């Protein structure tokens, strides 16, 4: 990766983080202004679902913010763009599309295939677990 490419990606990460933080601010003030609740049970149910949905999105945004912070820290320490598994350089094209990527495309595909053949070890299991806890 050239220094110019690194600067480009750092910029991209910082912009993504700013956007996420801005969005987080908005949903907090939205939640606070949402005082006029309807007494219709159906409305209340819908509102509750919307709130739960928003929190789910918030959760995902928080995770992304964490990933962006990690990526920025790696830029500082000079470890950015190195695959965490095989330690090969991650291609600039991949980082441009997904600047928080911590794995090269080969390792990513390998892990995804493993998750498919053994779902209890990966994300799919977490999804089932999440559904089980929340519903
Ligand atoms: Zn790799």
Q: How large is the share of residues in beta strands?
A: under 5%
Name the structural class: mainly alpha
Helix content: over 70%
Q: Report the C-alpha radius of gyration, rounded.
A: 19 Å
CATH topology of the largest domain: Four Helix Bundle (Hemerythrin (Met), subunit A)
Shape: flat
Determine the mean pLDDT: 84
Number of helices: 5
Uncertain spans? none
Number of strands: 0
Q: Identify the CATH class of the largest domain.
A: Mainly Alpha
Oligomer: single chain
The helix/strand series, from N terminus to C terminus, equals HHHHH
Largest sheet: none
Through-space gap between termini? 46 Å
Number of domains: 2
Q: What is bound: which ligands?
A: zinc ion
- Under the CATH scheme, the architecture of the largest domain is Up-down Bundle
Under CATH, the homologous superfamily of the largest domain reads: DksA, coiled-coil domain
Q: What's the quick description here?
A:
By secondary structure, the chain is mostly helical. The chain has helices at 3-33, 41-77, 92-97, 105-117, 123-134. The chain contains five helices and no strands.
Offer a few descriptive terms.
single chain; 135 residues; mainly alpha; Four Helix Bundle (Hemerythrin (Met), subunit A); 2 domains; 5 helices; flat; binds zinc ion
